[in-house]
Write a structure and sequence with these properties.
Strand content: 5-15%
Strand order of the largest sheet: 1-2-3-4
Distance between the termini: 78 Å
Radius of gyration: 24 Å
Shape: elongated
Number of strands: 4
Number of helices: 5
Structural class: alpha+beta
Length: 143
Amino acid sequence: MKRKRWLWLGATVIVALTGAGLADEHGHGHKKHHDRDDDDDRGDHYYREHERGEMRGWYHDRGDNLPPGFAKRDQLPPGLERQLRVRGTLPPGLRKKMLPCPEELEGRLPPPPRGCAHVVIGGHVVLVNRSSYMVLDIFHFER
């Protein structure tokens, strides 16, 4: 009987010590999802304020001569608009509406991360992962 108690006590101690070694500094276990590099000051958005200003300037310079995807008729209905969100996955209805980003605008933006692309969806510039369709950032133009 004493032997079983010692075995249980020993097993409990080993599990407790192993569990403490797996927790990070906040007690949340393994860090499976690494944050962005510490020296990258992008925060929650990939597009910095400078790039957002470039996109606004491009949009206003074009006036009424906007390429496909930016016209009033290309705006998304409210139901689809709500589905377009950062860190969300594009549903099939929005995937069909993806258009390539105009070259002139693409030249003003930073190169997209590997496996990603700048696309236009319903008058918005969207940074999307090409394989998983996860949205990394969205720029909404003021109309």
